[in-house]
Specification:
The chain is mostly beta strands. It has no helices and eleven strands. The model has no long low-confidence stretch (mean pLDDT about 95).
Length: about 120
């Protein structure tokens, strides 16, 4: 099993920045990629970004590309999501995810492992 603990959410104003963090532990030798999903209020979960376990490949949804950056720190077994120029439509519960498939698979398939979620609220 893989355990994910995500954190870093909060309440911010439009245009602000936030950095989400996720620490991964457990049977990480099978992990091929990590990522972030979000679930806005009253809507379905959606893909945000993913990164290969080595950190060499990244993928983003069109709605966050250019504003969000996903990164990995292998020494800390962590993945981050730097969110800049936040908008009210970014308001959601954000989930850290991990899977044994490559990062591009997260755009179309549901990851196997999920964190508990962290709330991000952007006020106008």
């Amino acid at each position: 099993q893989v355990q994910l603990v995500d954190s870093g959410g909060g309440l911010v104003r439009t245009g602000a920045s936030l950095r989400l963090s996720c620490v991964v532990s457990g049977r990480t030798f099978n992990v091929g990629s990590m990522g972030w999903f979000r679930q806005p209020p009253g809507k379905e979960r959606e893909f945000v970004a993913s990164i290969g376990w080595s950190g060499s490949r990244t993928y983003y949804s069109g709605s966050v590309k250019g504003r969000f950056t996903i990164s990995r720190d292998s020494a800390k077994n962590s993945v981050y999501l730097q969110m800049n120029s936040l908008k009210p439509e970014d308001t959601a519960v954000y989930y850290c995810t991990a899977d044994d498939r490559p990062p591009q698979a997260m755009e179309i398939m549901t990851p196997e492992f999920w964190g508990q979620g962290t709330q991000v609220t952007v006020s106008s």
